[in-house]
Structure formats: structure tokens, C-alpha cells
């Protein structure tokens, strides 16, 4: 690592705003809440940045930092599946080269802070603190650097729940964001990088945890703007690229319970009493925060009691309804673990079902295929015909108001291409304007009010400013796959010809090259699990 210096030679700073989009930013600009971001957008050039399908954090950020679609990099969701088993994704599930490793191979150092799905970190010239899906107090690169960060900057937290502030509090968000910026600036002084990537997750989190809360949203963005201003002043980057992995907006349509639809079609079996699936109803984020290992979960007496109650028809919905009637839903719900509540609900019996949705944030349907899944129900010879029939059935589904639920229902090959396509869902379902929502629940009506009033939209945002960017160019038709090629072009590093994006028009040049096959570390289980309750609270599971 390089000696510390008062100034850095940062040629490019990439700022990641999870869920950032024009509809969120413009009111903040008008209210003068985020002057630094506003200046970047107004002095440079900007435009829409289309996400992928699915436009969800755990898959979209790897697409951005590799420049390749999930069929190539291998991450389709927060969870990966092996038969009926699951694991929380981590960096070893990403089977393509991150752009900072490509830069490192060409002699360019990087500082990367809080980018999702980067734990455990790999070796490269620079420093990295992982983001979402990492455990609290994660392994960083180089080893031991987090301890130095904490000594220099104060406590550092991946998740706001680990701060000394109350859960879902503005203070917790602000503390997390503050430490994020301080850690990045400290590492820039240590490393003196050519490339920096600083991501802020709370710009997404606040909409899941405090939907529509103007005070909280403004507080989060003010904190981000302050850290960005201090970072720009300290590091003096030559160029700045602001990017988001997807957008965010209100969900005013219908929630469609796909697994309940399949059950009514006779295609899906269900169980109650906590014996069915999904098994990820264990609080994996809480485990991660508390340092426990994945899968090490013993049933409490209360959970066992709820399991028994479920066999007699005491469902989650009935429990919630009863609590709501006596005004106790919120205080009780905040104290009873999710897996105890879910033990009282019906769950999908995946081995005995023909088709199912395993995780709603996949936006996909999986077929229980003979020879592929341990207890496959659909013969391989019928795969294409069954898939085609399912696509027709789902395409025809209408909301109670008579509108299409989906704007597209397509085979996975429409959106994915590469050696890992077979690990993705068999069918992708795209909600109409992302104003409808899908969930994996069974045992409730097929349609209902959306559980989340705010959720992801496909259109994010990009802004570019700096002496190497042509700020007079209008950015149109950009996608998250274009970010990595643009980074390569700015540093005169040949673009991997296997990348799915192209250089944004803000910079000329860019050559392609064929790189040796990437050799990532073997896939490792996420031992320090964290987030099932966390991601459930955020609406991802």
C-alpha cells in the first residue's frame, strides 16, 4: 500500500446511489437539499440508466461492476439455489472479473467501499470494504484494514442496525453514511488510488423501511450529499460518475401471489406447520449481525408451539388479524421473530410441486425438472411445452380491474446469456410498469394490496462530469452494463470483449480485447449469514 499523502491522484470517482432516480432526485434539487449532487447533474451531463431484469441490488451491482449479465456472472438474486437448498450470495458466486481487478492487472489501484456482493474480497492493487450481503465486521482487503479504519474514523458499520442508534432511525442512517464517507477518504489517503468506487445503500433502504417518509428520505440524501462534498474536496477527483442500480417509486397496482395461482391451477403443493419451504425463513441477516453461522438455528419453545398451532389452521394472516384487532400488531410483530410468525403460515412444498416462485426478487418461475431437481416432477421431454404453457397462462393473468399483471413473461434466454443461464429461473415475469408486485406467498387470496407501498423501478440514473468527459453529449439508451466499459475506456484499459455493455458517449475511444478466462475462487457458503429478517424487512424476500 502506498504511503499516506495529503492529496490523491484520483482520476475517476464512481458514486453509487442505490435506487437513485430522477423522480427522487428532482424534488431534492428543488428543495436545495442536495447541492453537491445537483451541481454534478447540472454542470455535467446526465440521463436515464436502465437496469436489468431483475432490477434488484444483489444481481444488478455485479452486472454493473463486471459489465456482464447474470447469465455470465452467475448471480440472479440475493439467494442462490442448489436443488431445494439455498445460500445467501457472496462474492464467490460472482464468476466474472470485477472492473477493479481488471484495472489492477493494468497497474491501476482502486479503493472500493460498500459495493454489494463483494465479500469475501479478492486480492487486487488497492483496498476494499464490502457492502450488502457481507457480515458485520467483514473481512476486508487488505486483511486487517478495517481495524485501521475504525481507529482512524470511528466505528464502521455495514448495516445501520449495528449502530448505537435505534432501529430504522434517521440517526442510524446518518451514522452509517457518515462512516462510509470517512472510511473511503481514509483509504484514499492510504492507497492514493487512480479509481474510487463509493456506494451508498441507505438511499434504497429508507424507502423499504420508511416508505414515503419525507423527513427520513431528505435526511438520508442530505447525509449522502455532505459525504460526497467532503469526499470531492478531499480527493479532488478529475472525473465523477454517479450511477444507480435501479430506480424507486410508488407501487399503486396489485400484488399477485404467483404461488397461490399455481396451487389453484393444481401445479403447486403446500404445507403448514413450518415443515414446508422456503427454508430461508431463518433470520439470516440477524445471524450475520450477531456473528452466528448460517443454518445453525434451534427451534425455540415458542416456535415449536407455533408449528403445532399451524397444523390446526392458525395461519400468519389470522395471527396478524387478531393482533391488529386488539391494537397489538406493531408492538408484538416487532418482538416475535419472523420465523416464528411464518411457522404459522402455509409454505410451498417445493419437492412435491411442478412449478413455483422461490424468491420474489428473482422475478422468476422455476420448474421442478426431473433430472435437475432432486425430486423433479416435470419430465425433461416436457420441459419446453410446460414452459410455453406457463408463459401463456401467466401472460393472460389480469388484475381484478382487468389490466395485465405483467408487461412481459419470457423464457430466461430473453434476458440472460452465458454459461450460468441454467442457474437462473426458467421464466422471467416483468410486472406492468413495475406498478404491480409479485410475492411467493400461499394460503392467501391471489390478489391483494401490495405489501410494500414503494419498490424498485427499472430506470435509474447516470451523471458524468469531469475534464475527460464530454459534458455536451446527451446520454440516451444507457444501461448498467455500460458502466464497466466506460471505466475501462477512461483508463485506456482494453474493454473485455465479453462485456455486454458499451462505452457511454461521454468519452471517445475504447478498444476491445480478449482476456484469459477468469478464475475466481471456489464458491463458498455464506457462513456468517445475515439478512433474511433484514431482507424480509426490506421486502426482498
UniProtKB/TrEMBL annotation:
Keyword Thylakoid tagged: no
Keyword Protein transport set for record: no
GO molecular function, one term: hydrolase activity
Domain of life, per lineage: Archaea
Keywords: Plasmid
Xref: InterPro entries: Alkaline_phosphatase_core_sf, Phosphodiest/P_Trfase
Matches recorded under PANTHER family: BIS(5'-ADENOSYL)-TRIPHOSPHATASE (PTHR10151:SF120), ECTONUCLEOTIDE PYROPHOSPHATASE/PHOSPHODIESTERASE (PTHR10151)
Name of protein: Phosphodiesterase
Species whose genome carries this gene: Natronorubrum aibiense
Amino acid at each position: 500500500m502506498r504511503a499516506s499523502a495529503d492529496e490523491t491522484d484520483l482520476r475517476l470517482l464512481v458514486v453509487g446511489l442505490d435506487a437513485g432516480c430522477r423522480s427522487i432526485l428532482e424534488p431534492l434539487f428543488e428543495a436545495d437539499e442536495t447541492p453537491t449532487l445537483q451541481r454534478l447533474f447540472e454542470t455535467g451531463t446526465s440521463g436515464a440508466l436502465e437496469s436489468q431484469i431483475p432490477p434488484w441490488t444483489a444481481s444488478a451491482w455485479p452486472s454493473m461492476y463486471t459489465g456482464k449479465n447474470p447469465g455470465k456472472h452467475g448471480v440472479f438474486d440475493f439467494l442462490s439455489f442448489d436443488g431445494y437448498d439455498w445460500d445467501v450470495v457472496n462474492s464467490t458466486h460472482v464468476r466474472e472479473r470485477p472492473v477493479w481487478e481488471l484495472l489492477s492487472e493494468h497497474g491501476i489501484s482502486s479503493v472500493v467501499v460498500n459495493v454489494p456482493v463483494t465479500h469475501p474480497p479478492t486480492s487486487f492493487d488497492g483496498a476494499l470494504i464490502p457492502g450488502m450481503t457481507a457480515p458485520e465486521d467483514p473481512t476486508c482487503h487488505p486483511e486487517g484494514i478495517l481495524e485501521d479504519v475504525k481507529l482512524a474514523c470511528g466505528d464502521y458499520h455495514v448495516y445501520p442496525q449495528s449502530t448505537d442508534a435505534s432501529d430504522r432511525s434517521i440517526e442510524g442512517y446518518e451514522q452509517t453514511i457518515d462512516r462510509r464517507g470517512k472510511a473511503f477518504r481514509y483509504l484514499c489517503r492510504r492507497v492514493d488510488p487512480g479509481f474510487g468506487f463509493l456506494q451508498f445503500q441507505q438511499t434504497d433502504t429508507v424507502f423499504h423501511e420508511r416508505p414515503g417518509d419525507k423527513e427520513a428520505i431528505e435526511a438520508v440524501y442530505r447525509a449522502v450529499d455532505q459525504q460526497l462534498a467532503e469526499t470531492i474536496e478531499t480527493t479532488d477527483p478529475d472525473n465523477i460518475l454517479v450511477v444507480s442500480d435501479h430506480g424507486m417509486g410508488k407501487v399503486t397496482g396489485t400484488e399477485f401471489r404467483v404461488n397461490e395461482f399455481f396451487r389453484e391451477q393444481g401445479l403447486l403443493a403446500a404445507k403448514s406447520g413450518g415443515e414446508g419451504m422456503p427454508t430461508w425463513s431463518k433470520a439470516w441477516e440477524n445471524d450475520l449481525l450477531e456473528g452466528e453461522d448460517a443454518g445453525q438455528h434451534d427451534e425455540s419453545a415458542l416456535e415449536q408451539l407455533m408449528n403445532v398451532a399451524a397444523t390446526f389452521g392458525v395461519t400468519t394472516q389470522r395471527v396478524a388479524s387478531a393482533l391488529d384487532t386488539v391494537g397489538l400488531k406493531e408492538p408484538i410483530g416487532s418482538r416475535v421473530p419472523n420465523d416464528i410468525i411464518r411457522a404459522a403460515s402455509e409454505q410451498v412444498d417445493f419437492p412435491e410441486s411442478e412449478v413455483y416462485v422461490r424468491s420474489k426478487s428473482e422475478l422468476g418461475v422455476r420448474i421442478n425438472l426431473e433430472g435437475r431437481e432432486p425430486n423433479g416432477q416435470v419430465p425433461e421431454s416436457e420441459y419446453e411445452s410446460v414452459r410455453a404453457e406457463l408463459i401463456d397462462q401467466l401472460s393472460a393473468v389480469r388484475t381484478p380491474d382487468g389490466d395485465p399483471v405483467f408487461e412481459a413473461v419470457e423464457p430466461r434466454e430473453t434476458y440472460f446469456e452465458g454459461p450460468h443461464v441454467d442457474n437462473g429461473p426458467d421464466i422471467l415475469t416483468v410486472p406492468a410498469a413495475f406498478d404491480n408486485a409479485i410475492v411467493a406467498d400461499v394460503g392467501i387470496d391471489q390478489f391483494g394490496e401490495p405489501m410494500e407501498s414503494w419498490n424498485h423501478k427499472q430506470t435509474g440514473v447516470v451523471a458524468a462530469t469531469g475534464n475527460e468527459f464530454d459534458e455536451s453529449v446527451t446520454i440516451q439508451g444507457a444501461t448498467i452494463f455500460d458502466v464497466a466499459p466506460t471505466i475501462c475506456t477512461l483508463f485506456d484499459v482494453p474493454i473485455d470483449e465479453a462485456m455486454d455493455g458499451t462505452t457511454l458517449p461521454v468519452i471517445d475511444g475504447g478498444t476491445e480485447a480478449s482476456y484469459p478466462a477468469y478464475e475466481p475462487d471456489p464458491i463458498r457458503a455464506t457462513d456468517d449469514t445475515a439478512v433474511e429478517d433484514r431482507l424480509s424487512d426490506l421486502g426482498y424476500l
